[in-house]
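ARCHIVE RECORD
Type: protein–small molecule complex
Small molecule: H79
Source of inputs: curated submission
Record status: active
Notes field left blank by submitter.
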Amino acid sequence: DSIPLRHGAHRIGNRTDSDMAHWRDYGLGQFIHWGLYAIPGGFWHGQPVNGAAEWIRSSKKVDPKEYDALISQFNPVKYDPVAWALMAKNMGTKYVTFTTKHHDGFCLWPSKYSDFTIMQSPWKKDIIKPFVEAYNKQGIDVYLYFSIMDWHNPDWRYELKTKSDSVAFDRFKEFTKNQLTELLTLYPTTKGLWFDGTWDKSWKASGAFSDELEQYLKKLRPGLVIGSRLRADEKGNRHLDANGRLMGDYHQVWERKIPETIAEVKGYDWECVMTVPENQWGYNARWSGHVKSSSEIIEMLANCVSKGGNFVLNFGPKGDGSFREEEIRLAKEIGNWMAVNGEAIYAAGQSDFRKEDWGYYTKSKTSGKTYMVVFNTPVTNMLKVNIPKNQKIASQKLLGSKQVLPLEHIEGRMHYIRLPGGVRQQPAVIELQLISDDQKKELDV
Ligand code: H79
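STRUCTURE (tokenized, with ligand):
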């Protein structure tokens, strides 16, 4: 009894090909927001502007013409993509998403379809090419962020009210298609596109075009991964079509939020993108509100992986191309943890254990091992573990030290594993090897 749709989902369930399997196993990614907004860094004429730094052009306090003139100041002499890629690699990043064009329309690549690119800035060099090369060299897959909404292009419309709006927006669609073709042609190792700025009425009324565009891009670059933010169906539904089926390759609504339960993602592949402070993606010199620590970020990472999702942490480099101290420190701390505990994150997903209060279970798809990522250590240091039916724990080791931890059977399937006492700087991870009850009996003989 489904509604017939020409431009709804074209697939039921998740993709089953190897490119998507590869995406699913990343675990940890990096997001980078960089553009003209990094130059004012949340301030205008010396005054802080509320809201996200990358949205400053839309603030009442900012004259858009004056904002666009920032292009004459874009000269990031400290831009060092090799160092950026090394930092990402050392953090344990498997993929990166980089803003080629944010809502302001400024292109970090030499687009021949725009007069508002790095070629009109004093820098005059492609930012994207050396970025892709440096990251790929470190074995990190590159995804390109692209905002459909473009405040600089006069043909952009929020809503199509008149015939002339539609005529302008048709030109805009052609421009969008051209820019995307250009990106995939210039950077052929691109693994996927991360779309944004697709929530306006004009785009929701362009379901057929969004469908054709997605299919065209995938034909151009087979295997390309595109999340659910690009598409609308012909009825204006986004993410899920009128029949409740996901359009695109993964659920892409998890921006600065994590599903409470795995049921919320409806079995689809998904990714969470997260900021370090509250809602700041581009560089903001004034980080107000709560700023997350590395352990909080690692908890979010483990939480996402335990629910089968990838976790992506955002960085907002300064206008000169350097990273702020806070981000450099976080990347190091996360990297130190990942170097020891990465096997609980990469190619890992949901486990069949019942969740406990101390943290999250993940399970490796390659080794079949189960991991306990521990955040809330009880005063007793005793961690409750309920083993699924027909399974037994064959070994329980602390990652890093390989120390075997005491295991005590309580009753039924309930056990306690005792963590060593003492102050912990970072979350502990315990590796569990499980065997079936039958195997255990054989071993006992
Ligand atoms: O690039 C980062 C953000 O700048 C961008 N997505 C991340 C990855 C983003 N910003 N806001 N949003 C996404 C959500 C959109 C919020 C909106 Fe609105 C609510 C758009 C329209 C209504 C707030 C109110 C912004 C404009 C009016």
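CURATOR ANNOTATION: The pocket of H79 is lined by residues 33, 52, 54-55, 196, 199, 255, 273, 281 (CB under 6 Å).
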